[in-house]
Fold each of these.
Amino acid sequence: MRRAHFKFSWIVPLLLAPQLLVIFTFFYWPSAQALYWAFTLEQPWGGGNTWVGFDNFRKVLSDPYYWGSVRVSVIYALATTILAMGMALTLALFVDRQLAGYRVWRIGIIWPYAVAAPAVGLAFQFVFNPGAGIFSYINTISPGWWDLSKHPWQAVTAIVIAGAWKQVSYSFIFFLAALQAIPRSLTEAAAMDGARPLRRMIDLQLPLLTPTFFFLLVINITDSFTDSFGIVDTLTGGGPFRATDLMVYKIYSDGFRGFDYSGAAAQSIILMCLVMALTFIQFRYIERRVHYT
Amino acid sequence: MTQKLATATLVALAATAGTASAERAKFEYWYGLTGDLGAVVAETCNRFNASQDQYEAVCVGQDGYEKAVQNTIAAFRAGKHPTLLQSFDAGTADLMMSGEFYPVTKLMADTGVTIDWADYFPGIANYYSSKSGEFFSMPWNSSTPVYYWNKDLFAKAGLTEAPITWEGMEAAFKALKTAGVDCPYAYAPSSWIDLEQFSMAHGVPVASNNNGYDGLDSELLFNTTLHVQHMENIKRWLDEGLAQLRTPAAGKSSRDSFVEGECAVFFSSIADHNTVHKLKPAFAWDVQIIPTYEGVERKNTVVGGASLWVLSGKTDEEYKGAAAYLAFIATKPEQQFLLENSGYIPVTKSTYEALKAEGFYDKEPYINRDIAMKSLTWTEPTPLTRGIRLGSFIQIRAEWTAEVEAALAGQKTMKEALDTAVARGNDHLKRFAATYPGKSFP
């Protein structure tokens, strides 16, 4: 029996080096720095810091408003993920059926992914603005009903819709690719057995999509925890009264706006742990149901 | 006096420069102003560069005060910071504590540039100087709050005067309402106006230790002063329909509500005077000093806006250039250039007197703009009206805003909201003090 093996060659570390360097510089180094700051009180302009042990974590975790922020972050992540993946799947199924003009739709649906989050937030300003947006028509029927500055649930709904809209295209590309990877022969065989499109979708296509589904679930949840800043900043600014103060947004406002680098570092570590824990749970409990063929 | 000396210095500098090489000494200046006002800064830099041939100011806009400070901190930590930074007051507590700046009084003395520091209005001088009276930073774009009122709507309600007491304001709101004005007062929560300047004008403390000047162990006190009653009044006016909440999140900003003729009154910085003028409201309007409650002896308000900081760790050449630039912007022509292109106010007495003598404030669009000076100089600054020197102040403002918004939405009473804001603000203050153990404000 022949075993394939590689001789050690300098070319291997050499080829790996640039990538490792990038990861080290932009991920491990800042993360280590954040971890260190999380246990100190760091002076923004340099000039030293004081070791405070777990004080920063204790302070953050004993703050009821921080738990409010965690709660709304979880709601936001779940709602945007469900909404975005649901819409993406629906759209992908239609495009896959090659309905009239599907090539145009395909490009049209991919586009939003190229839009930066703050731009998405601004665009949705025109939709949700209580005075001038599309939603202001509701207010002409029942004055003052739609008001992002008064009703927390409306503000949360607004950022969820904007966030989901931005995520749809990413999931769409993957769903479509996965659908097109399903062998035609399978679909045709099912059709010959008399399965209508809806039946084929439920019994054939969806089960075959589970690996993609799982991958997108992990990515979408991670993304909605970490990439919601631009939308919140432009659409609600964390208000009304902290109702949309997502964890990433709070890190920004405490750290960069309020110069509390250490408090923000502690929050970053907590966010990182939370995302890791969620990913772990997904791999542990959901992946079991995924069949890779 | 200042400008004469400063001009003389500039001429002297220019003369020596003539013989020097054509190579100009460059220094960087990062500023926060954006839009039209950012263009004014850029233009001021061009004027400076054209006025002499020894130094070159490289001016870089940073897209807002907050970002200017954030970017400068990041650059500072990497050793690539600018010589000059334009910063707003709330962002400078950490800079003061770090000591990583070159006090302008000292800079001018070291570089041999003469500035008549006594010429600065005391309300401005106190705000930007240390306990010993040394200027930390160079005052430049300065403002103070006023309120804007729609003369036509007031006339409709039979009112010709803009009241200067809150009791008078309430009566005016009622009269306006009776006369069919749906929105007498466009209210937008502003910690700067409703809390800080309100407390100054009434001579009540925002925090202990004379608003933080006398030590880092300060505690917030605004839940125990007249401020509570004032915020409760605002809530009541909103409930009674005498005022309406007008914020961008609620659909329309208070300024837009005013300019469009919908609301009769809104509060803002005098810096908005120029903007409101440019938006050309279709009615007669004017500005008035912020009101006080009856039975209170009115005090001065303090400046807002920003000042220019000189940062540490630069070369002598860069410092000389920065000194020349700061002397340049203190001259009367340059102050006037800023005033003509913005709503800001003069910072020195001599410039103000000269402008008044020239009739600057008698013609449109500057008529009555100097009412801000009246507010700033109402009394000599007292220990409680020098200003506010608290760490983590941006966060304290955010706590105040979030709590007040919650109270206005009916989630809690105003007193509960302010108590919470104070308790949370005190936590921020303790944290700030712990970050700088054993130190105090210079």
Amino acid sequence: MQILANPAKRDIGSRSSLVNLEARTLDAPSLARRCVLARLADLTPSLYQQLISQGAAALVVLLPSNLLVLSDEQQKLVHDVEEAMLEGDTQIAVYLAYETQELTDIYESVRTSTNTDSASSAAAALLSSLSSDGYQIVVGGSQSKQISDMSIANVQGKLSGYGAEEQLPTIAVVAYYDAFGAAPELAMGGDSNGSGIVVLLELARILSRLYSSPRTHPRLNVAFLLSGGGYINYQGSKKFLEDHLDASDSSFLSETHFTLCLDTLGNGNTLRLHVSKRPKENSPGHHFYETLESAGVKEGISIEMVHRKINLQEDTQAWEHEKYSMRRLPAFTLSRLTGPKTGERGTILDTVEAVNVDTLTRNTAVIASALLQHIYNTSIDDILEDGLSVTKESITSWIDLIASQPRSPQLLSGKNNPLVSTLHQVLLRYTNEAHINYFKADKRDPEWAFYDVTRAVMATYAVKPAAFDFFLTIAILGYLGIIYMLLQYFPMIYALMSRLAVPQKAKVH
Amino acid sequence: MTFFHFGNCIALAYGPYVLTYKYSGMPEYGAFWKCAQVAGMYILTQLCKMLLLATFFPTTDGPPENASFILELVKTTVDFGDVMGMSVVMSRVSGSGHIKVLITGLGWAAADLLLTRTLPLWVGARGLEFDWKYIQISLDANISLVHHLNLALLVWLWWRTDLASTVRPIVAVLISGCVYRPLLPQLLSLLLGSRPLGFTLLAACATPTICTALIANNIFMTHNSNLRS
């Protein structure tokens, strides 16, 4: 059975990972010091709070094997539950598991057989506890502890324009590649931000073709950044900016036209350009907005500009571009979402199936043609021809590659993570100077900390109550007593049997 | 409370053995060491049997239900080694009739219990999971005690030269019945179409054992009164 554990990230999530408790379902009268089994559909935020206040010691949430079958209302409820779980930290162990046949059986038998806590009398309670089976849920292993040496990787690459590289303006394309959810092992991040990565990789592929041909080599640099730690206040972008702005010898971000952050683009017919400061007329940013609008109209996508001031009082930034805007770089985030906190980012429901590949293909094509129109400053139609066109096949293969595995930051840690290496290989193929930049949290004042035990194996045992064993002991003692009596009076029994046997002998003779 | 359950199982399995030893007058004969010797003989016999089985019968993979009955029958024939082992022990142990039988039977059964049932109990009954299986194993150990005492008695009777010639065939049949007893579940599954499980199987095993015990007792008593008269 595959069970996925909650992270304890800073001070959100569950702090415990060990379970050795008797199972109950939600409708049991008393849940104190029990492990509660609950179907996701039955759970509500208030019920979750109630569980904790009642003193439940562990919670196993049974996920339907296909999360897409949930109706919109249920999805909303799941968002709410997830939010409630991630609102703060809790001492109880919370596990999420896909509902397999075995788990369904366990759930049903727990529901029918163990909810006997309310009996009319003590004797009735004793009797029912003797006849009923209990279920003990055990999750072993080690208690979850902080991952000590966790690293986050930034993957970056650059396409250099024609001419002296240092003197050319730069466009930066940024997408964070991690995912988040109530359970790290279930955070697939299909739309958020798998779609952003896909668009970035497609842009890199298309531009690399154009940059390799002398006829279409533009006088503009394009930098690509796949930033890590997007869900922990865009640590990747923060580190990237520190490296390239504060270090005097780096010219990577000098004179940027704009920074385009890609976030959640896999659905919907409206793309929104989120800005912190409206770009001036005639600025490159505004020009890109116009080209995007014209490219969008052709495909029936409306483009909106959404303005949101950076709140400097807040510790965390809502959009990735705010990190750049705060450093006085022109930047905006392109997303289908209306706002940063719609609950559609960072949820376990955001799987690869949540992405509409057709829409993503169309959106990618629109973004690519807008960017090309901006770079070449032309408005020729059909700028994306044969080899350059965005095909559904390539989009599907990208999104499958990226969103087929959980991408929680703690799972992507380490030097040789396969996914990070793959992303690096892709950028290595399409861009120059592609490299991975690893960084860690500050030792003295860490901005983030993750806890391990993201996945555990759960075992369920049918158990009898302790009183049953006492009764068994009494029965065995009685049995042994009878044997003792038999042996004590064996001579008498023997004599009796002899008397019975001997007349028989007399008959024989 | 799981170790407690293990304790329960052990009490149920070993209690009758201890009681039998204590209250059947054996300690007066200093029979403990003799019982240990019998147990040693038991181990030797089992080794010989295993050697025979390993040499002449290739292992068949798969669950035991699939094995053919005839093959099992031939394999079980090797268990006549037990009878021979008991005969050898019986000829070595000194003592009067019923003590001889008790020492051989109890020693043999105790060794069997130690070597075949303690480990499953130790491994299984201490676990968190409750299963009636371990109580059944313990009860089966009690049946096995009766069975081995029985077999010892029959073997002892067989080697009596003064046994009435009319009962000798009965003794022979009972001995073979005891030897082929392990085949009972399979025979039942052949006859009934399904293999009995749990307590039903236990009852099915206990019934012939107790019947044999009663008949063997009867023969023993008749034989004794014959001697006396």
